[in-house]
Amino acid sequence: MQPAGIEATDFGWHHPGRAQPAFSGLNFVIEPGQKVLLLGASGAGKSTLLHAMAGVIHDDDGETQLGSLTVGGLAPAEARGVVGLMQQDPESSVVLARVGDDVAFGPENLGVAREEIWRRVEECLRVVGLEDLDLNRSTSALSGGQKQRLGLAGILVMHPGALLLDEPTANLDPAGVEQVRRAVLDAQAATGATLVVIEHRVGIWAEHMDRVIVLGSNGGITHDGAPETVLREARAELIEAGVWVPDYLPQTPQPVTGKQTPLVSAQDLSITRAYPSRKQRKQRARDLAAGQSPVLELEPVAQGISLQVLSGEHLSILGPNGAGKSTLALTLAGLLYPVSGRLEAEEPLRASSSLMGDAASGSRSAQTVSSDIASWQPAELASRIGLVFQEPEQQFIRPTVREELEFGPRQIARIRKSPLNEEELAERTDFLLQRLRLDTLQDANPFTLSGGEKRRLSVASALTTAPAIVVLDEPTFGQDAKTWAELVVLIRELVEGGTAVISITHDMDFVRALGGRAFSVGGERAGQMRRVGQL
Amino acid sequence: MNIDLFADSVEKQGAIGRLNAGVKLLATLLMTLALILVKDWVSAGSILLLELIALRAVGVHPLRLLGRFWPVLFGALLSGWSTALLVEKTGRVVLEIGFLLVTTDSLATGFALMLRGLAMVLPGLLLIATSDPTDIADSLAQTAKLPARFVLAALAALRLVGLMFTEWNALGQARRARGLGGRDNPWQTLKTVGGQTFALLVQAIRRGTRLSTTMEARGFGGPEPRTWARQVTYSRGDLFFFLGCLLLIAAGYSISAAAGELTFLWQ
């Protein structure tokens, strides 16, 4: 297909029931084959614009769309197959269960003949660098980067005139980002298709683009031109909007350490993703009681891990994807059982318990628990180790932001059957709400928050029980520069106050900003612990 | 219970796995119908016995099949027991504990129903275990000419079901980390599970919405007539399999008729 130009004339989109349009009065002509980076603050309507170009949002009442938008001279809804759209979540790039079938899905819908479909499938898998995959391979076994490339092949196979990508690399690790970027640029070079990308990590795409368009937060275009010019002129505005412009790192204070005492010791630890059966768990408990070190018959992902978690220090866990970083974090946090080796909570952690609970009962009636973290009850766990998952939504429990923050202390008080000091809880909740700029949202439903707000809430809700250890799984994934800087400052404060903070991360800027030590799982430096200054 | 219907299995690699999925579906439906039509235990029992022999003959382990889908087995056994308790009580009393009363006749009815249930689920389980849902969908859309839009949407949704199980485990861990789900009273446990289910549904709906956007962007539901990349093929093996199933039903009916026990639903 011929590369398709995109033309907007006074174009706008006014969601029904909203006071203000998402954006309006857009005028631009994207020439066929042009490569455009679309930037703007969150909420500026970038995704809506891209979805409108793809023809997947519809003007049902005839009043939602303002002005006109054409793709290759057609209304987007009539231009089926002319544009290809890729979304952020790798899982929604895949439609069918087998690699070949998934790529063939688009041309089938467009009525392409069978022999031609399979010829195109082979060709497009080659363009995105997946030619080694068997056509019958299960799509669910692929990594995030592979899924996004498969999704790209599924778009290219329709021979579209324009590729529209909505943060295609936001959920990927650095290796995945590189794979997808190369695949996209190769595909664009091979087909000459028009390319429109939304991405707040500008550095990934800027040098390969012909043009940058910036949407303002008031719903119009504020800058439009060559990448160097726009990035120079709009730099302040973009930084203010939280966009990661090239060569920019938010200013954060120097790393600190607090009072250091060992909280958890691991010696020659083997970790696994598998969960033991009831029988295995019972046997394990018997072995522990008899003073033996138990071994579970489960497949390990990583072995020979020896490390110590210290209070008042940031510990980064580094390593390639699939090496077992998250598994290690879940094991340290007591949510998975170790296969073998020693994993013990040290005395200060065993004795420590929720500040709220103790304040409520009026005495330091710390309940000491066993040194085997895996056998702790959820309430014992939540008052000692706070865990923040990569996907904030998985952790939300209550219908409002405020209740979400109050949940931890209430749950612990309930299980311990100890009274709760409502005043103190309200005070502490107010403090956290303000500290994380969530105070105006306290009655909102957590699911309706923006990505950055969700991240802040999930961190705050792990802090309400004042745990001695906080574990964060990829805290900076997909976050804008503002949220990034806020997280660094917040974690630094925790560390200074004596909390042990463990982050699983690929983000080396984040590691350097927080200092402390770094432990590698898998890769060349598997099992090594280094000071961050020596990385 | 292994629920990922797309996962590869020993059964899918076997002789039955290579047969046409649509033929297997049709044969399964026929077997089910044949079993619904009779209510005596001899025909149900002999069809069940023949099924077990036939399964062994083609290299499928019936117990492993039932074990993999144990809730179905459990359901079939339970239906027999509850029937024995609930139907009209005639004949000699076998068991009486409080309000539980089981008589010879009610036991016979329950037993017949259990056999029938088991005989009915086995072909269905074989179909599920040996067929990839994609192939069943192809047969439904291309041979049976069911609306492609409906069939493909169901197929894409089925893939999400497998993801939901992974998601469920992650949700469980996330909630445990927040202090939920320990030793608790039944009411709290119910609330915890309820909340987790709700969170799972929210995730599923969101993912479903994004997936439908992807499908639409790939031209799904457009006005053009759709083509099919995969060709549905039929072989001589399919014919033999189908005839074998018919023969099995006929044999079951004949054994029961010879024993003078054959009773149809309306008799």
UniProtKB/TrEMBL annotation, chain A:
Domain named ABC transporter: residues: 6-243, 283-535
Ranges annotated as spanning the membrane: none
Coiled-coil positions: none
Protein's UniProt keywords contain Ribosomal protein: no
Cellular component, GO annotation: ATP-binding cassette (ABC) transporter complex
Domain of life: Bacteria
Family annotation (InterPro entries): AAA+_ATPase (IPR003593), ABC_transporter-like_ATP-bd (IPR003439), ABC_transporter-like_CS (IPR017871), ABC_transpr_CbiO/EcfA_su (IPR015856), ECF_ABC_transporter_ATP-bd (IPR050095), P-loop_NTPase (IPR027417)
UniProt xrefs under CDD domains: ABC_cobalt_CbiO_domain1
Keywords in alphabetical order: ATP-binding, Nucleotide-binding, Transport
GO MF, one example: ATP binding
Family: Belongs to the ABC transporter superfamily.
Protein name per its UniProtKB record: ABC transporter ATP-binding protein
Native organism: Rothia aerolata
Lineage per the UniProt record: Bacteria, Bacillati, Actinomycetota, Actinomycetes, Micrococcales
Automatic annotation (TrEMBL), chain B:
Localisation per UniProt entry: Membrane
Chief site of localization: membrane
Membrane topology, from the record: Multi-pass membrane protein
UniProt-listed CDD domains: EcfT
InterPro entries linked: ABC/ECF_trnsptr_transmembrane, ECF_transporter_component
Keywords noted in UniProt: Cell membrane, Membrane, Transmembrane, Transmembrane helix
GO cellular component: plasma membrane
Transmembrane segment boundaries: 25-49, 69-87, 99-128, 148-168, 239-259
Taxonomy, superkingdom: Bacteria
Name of this protein: ABC transporter
Species assigned in the record: Rothia aerolata
